[in-house]
Amino acid sequence: MNNPLKRRFAQKQKATLSWLLIPSAFTAESMAQTGFDGLIVDMQHGVQDYQSMVACFQALHAHPVARLARVPANEAGIIGKTLDAGAHGIICPMIGSEAEAEALVRAAKYPPRGTRSNGPVRAGLYTYGPSSYQATANDETLVIAMIETKQGVDNIDDILAVPGIDSIYVGPTDLGFSMGLPPILDREEPEILAIYAHLLKRSAAAGVVAGIHVATPAYARRMLDMGFLWTSIGADVAYMTAAAKVAAAC
User: Is the pLDDT of residue 33 over 90?
Assistant: First the structure.
């Protein structure tokens, strides 16, 4: 297994990703040709399910784009099954403690590093030999913990210290929500920007990559300049509806 996004992270190369909310292989195939470094199938929100995720991964496989998925919860069964489908990485929402981060890593890694069950039915199709996928999966798959609550911020050092966490990923809407603020993306509140700076400082000290979700390219460039190594910008449905509104208003 060769994970192009993990290579970029290891070389400290900045990366730009986006989201696949539409359960369509054709949409995924089209998005794969736009220039993003990775695409994330969202099984937490939107209308994607496991079968549509597999179809999106099949469409992405022909293109040099990383295949990620956000699972709906920190649950071992769906994490392992998502990796079995060929995900290069798992994004897990609402990680707020060391124990939750440890559970995420255990579910995503084969023994002895974790408890992931053997059975990479689709992921193993594109490797050679009966155990070649298993031999590389622990090192190649990305484990990404979403930091999107005040609890996660308060416990960031404990979360970052968990071996196997490759990246933290800031979810601005839920982070604001947890602090009594409106659920918006490209935030300007001084207290939120201070949290971003704090997370960047702590993740850099721990040697862990940091990413953030944003709404616009301009804010993405600002966050990359601030120190985030990667961003995700918008989503397929947002791009489609925005362009349609412009066309309909002519």
Answer: yes
